[in-house]
Specification:
With 140 residues, the chain is of the alpha+beta class. It has 2 helices and 9 strands, in the order βββββββββαα.
Length: 140
């Protein structure tokens, strides 16, 4: 296997992931970011999207990740997210309902703040459904 670094993925509720990884890909506010061992120290603002990591055994895992921040040092990366879910933990029925509600809400006249919140809800539901359908245990 290749060079590794330690990745911690934290949410307000728990430590979602902690371990050695070869790579991590995540959606940043200005595009997708791929982190490898020895990456230059930096901080990224993260957007709602798919999180992909390859652990030190070469196994690739995917998750639905919310917005947050990623801090990278020479041998460590810490990701702080509002939420993160493995595909097998996503409730598809709930995500489909949330997607429908958000789409309906976006069709209504509303203030800017409500519109932005409904857009975020729609993106989160779509991300959860995408990760769940592409990477569920049953599909692999």
């Amino acid at each position: 296997m290749g060079k590794t670094f330690h990745l911690s993925v934290l949410t307000p509720e728990h430590e979602f992931y902690s371990g050695a990884v070869e790579t991590v890909r995540v959606a940043a506010t200005d595009g997708e970011v791929c982190i490898l061992a020895g990456h230059a120290p930096t901080v990224y603002a993260l957007a709602e999207g798919e999180l992909t990591l390859r652990d030190d055994t070469g196994r690739t895992r995917w998750a639905a990740a919310s917005d947050g921040f990623l801090t990278v040092t020479q041998d460590r990366a810490v990701m702080m997210l509002q939420s993160a879910e493995w595909p097998e933990d996503i409730d598809r029925v709930r995500a489909e309902r949330a997607e429908r509600r958000a789409k309906e809400a976006l069709l209504q006249k509303q203030d800017r703040q409500s519109y932005m919140m409904n857009q975020a809800m729609l993106l989160r539901a779509m991300t959860r459904l995408s990760v769940s359908s592409k990477h569920s245990v049953n599909n692999q």
